[in-house]
Design goal:
By secondary structure, the chain is an alpha/beta fold. The chain contains 16 helices and five strands. Helix 4 (107-120) links the parallel strand 2 (95-101) and strand 3 (123-128). The relative contact order is 0.14. The chain binds zinc ion. Residues 8, 10-11, 13, 27-28, 30-31, 293 line the site of zinc ion.
Length: 384
Amino acid sequence: MSGGYKQCTRCVMDTTTALIVFDEKGVCNFCHDYDKHAAESVLRDRAIRYAEFDQLISEIKLQGKGKEYDCILGLSGGVDSSYLALIAHDQGLRPLVVHFDNGWDNELAVKNIQNIIQKLNYDMSTYVVDWNEFKDLQLAYFKASVIDLEVPTDQLIVATLYKLAKEHGIKSILNGNNFRTEYILPRDWIYSKKLDLVNLTNIHKKFGKIPLKNFPKIGINDRYRYQKVDGIRMATFFDKIDFNLNEVKERLIKELNWTPYPGKHYESIFTRFYQGYILLKKFNVDKRKAHLSSLICSGQITRAEALNELKLPPYPTELQMEDRNYVIKKWGLTEVEFDRIMAEKKVPHESYGEEKGANLMNRLREEVKLIYRYQILKRLGLFK
Ligand SMILES: [Zn+2]
């Protein structure tokens, strides 16, 4: 890094990401990027956004007519998915709610989920992951010294949601992506190709110990097939409706008996420890900076408030130590092994291989198949 430490004058992003650049006023590229995309999404005319929202709700209902469920929702008990559950209820949607138990739930999350299900009278199925396989994969990522230890969980969730949607004939997956609270996220702080199965397979081959027989996986091409052939889509709400984090939390507390968490995505013990300890100590990444910067850019907090929050540890140090012992034990490591891996240098995901060229070819192949199928149906008079 040349030029030493520097922090954006508008948000709290800084030179701990190699991808930051500043303009002559000291404002960073993440701010500019936020503004540019906000103008195309959350800052558009309110009436237009809400018309799109209504249209989306109508489509989901229409596609789900006569079926047991019209959409599917992955519920973690965190702000975004809990609010999605509430909006779905407001709008009269009939979601199949799925909770993913990857072995790292905390009690608070479980309580929140139970309250939501009860209050909103939803059906919920809990997907319990094969813990030995999941542990093996998660540990492989840790041993590989790659930055994104959440890929296994993201794989599990996305793969299972699509699979269940297809099985139940559901066309819409409610998506909790939230522009205003999480748009800013440097690409060197995560692995953005979460569905890269080449990367996952190679990391697991090198560092895993047992075969992944039950773990649900999804590749970029699998998702493409679900979307284009099966017509399953991700339905994103939050960029269409108003979203003020404090107001949303208040509503959740009042209407769903929801208990707030100290950090973002701290509903999982692993995520809390990963973001508040591993990322910070091994990779020198404080993910709160990205989250707080999104909130600054969307006008929900001031820069001074964010700076104050950053002065505190991500979460209480006693709890960090408690989590540390818990994670080491649950992963079956010794303290020495854990510290040795923590001290190893970061390895870029890409160095374990990535899915690229083949992907485009497969997409073209799928397109040709679709056109071919359409022509046959047309010839048989089944498609008008
Ligand atoms: Zn900035």
